[in-house]
UniProtKB/TrEMBL annotation:
It comes from Alistipes onderdonkii. The lineage of its organism: Bacteria, Pseudomonadati, Bacteroidota, Bacteroidia, Bacteroidales. The chain crosses the membrane at residues 90-111, 146-163, 175-198, 210-231, 243-267. InterPro entries: DUF3667 (IPR022134). Keywords: Membrane, Transmembrane, Transmembrane helix. This is DUF3667 domain-containing protein.
Length: 271
């Protein structure tokens, strides 16, 4: 039994607290005023990580940088741990993707470069089609999260079908894997694009094209390695399945864009 002298109440959830942290919500006891240390602790928690205290012990929670580093150097282990239940250890994948997209867009705008230069153009002078083209150009060039969220559902669906004999993972588990990998892909592509701008390489130059191809090949090999280790299949099997998965995903994305353009055109004609 807790004595009245040692029993304290958590200011967040009202639970009785014996130690430094609440056993129910994890909030530190006695912190009521916001100070500069509060800002520092929050920044460290977001980017580096902190500790989540349960009733018995403390486990480390990774921040954005440590989660991304873990995905980069040991992607298979990170994915397996998250799917196995160690979810509090890492930044949630959807949160991570939104934060990464926001940070990368800020950096790309700062350097005045585009990660992906989409160019939808109307073949005639129809004002309706021109407006649709302008809308698509703006949205896909300025909203990385939309592009990622358009690709990931199809990628997860393709993986679910292609790897149905290799794994019993559910669709949403493939979806979460895609969220994690998309965050890392956007960071690497953004870094390559910014590096090209900093080095003042013309977009159509040989060096810029070589750098772009190296980045794409590296990402493809990286994905193949993950698939091989995650599902324990051969290099050839992982490579063929990855190419097939990308082909299906690309076909679905193109079909979706065509449907969006057609739907917007019909909507404008009717209203």
């Amino acid at each position: 039994m807790n004595s009245p002298e040692t029993s304290r109440t958590c200011l967040n959830c009202g639970t009785q607290v014996d130690g430094r942290y609440c056993p129910r919500c994890g909030q530190e006891y006695g912190s009521t005023r916001i100070t500069w240390r509060s800002l520092y602790d929050e920044a460290v928690s977001i980017f580096i990580g902190d500790s989540i205290f349960s009733e018995k012990d403390a486990v480390v929670r990774y921040g954005i940088l440590r989660t991304l580093w873990s995905i980069l150097i040991r992607p298979t282990t990170t994915v397996r741990e998250y799917l196995a239940g160690k979810q509090c250890k890492y930044v949630p994948p959807l949160t991570l993707l939104m934060l990464v997209c926001t940070i990368c867009l800020l950096l790309l705008n700062w350097f005045q470069v585009k990660l992906l230069d989409f160019s939808f153009s109307a073949e005639d002078d129809d004002p309706i089609l021109q407006n649709i083209s302008e809308f698509l150009n703006y949205y896909f060039n300025n909203h990385l999260e939309l592009l990622a969220m358009l690709k990931i559902p199809y990628m997860a669906l393709a993986c679910k079908w292609i790897f149905r004999k290799c794994s019993s993972l559910r669709y949403m588990e493939y979806f979460y894997i895609g969220l994690y990998l998309a965050s890392l892909h956007i960071i690497l592509l953004s870094a390559g694009t910014i590096l090209t701008q900093v080095c003042e390489l013309p977009p159509d130059s040989l060096a810029a094209n070589i750098l772009s191809r190296i980045a794409k090949v590296t990402l493809s090999v990286y994905n193949i390695v993950i698939l091989r280790n995650l599902f324990r299949i051969s290099w050839a099997g992982a490579s063929v399945r990855y190419i097939l998965c990308m082909a299906i995903t690309t076909a679905c994305i193109v079909s979706t864009l065509v449907a969006i353009v057609a739907g917007m055109a019909i909507f404008d004609e009717l209203f």
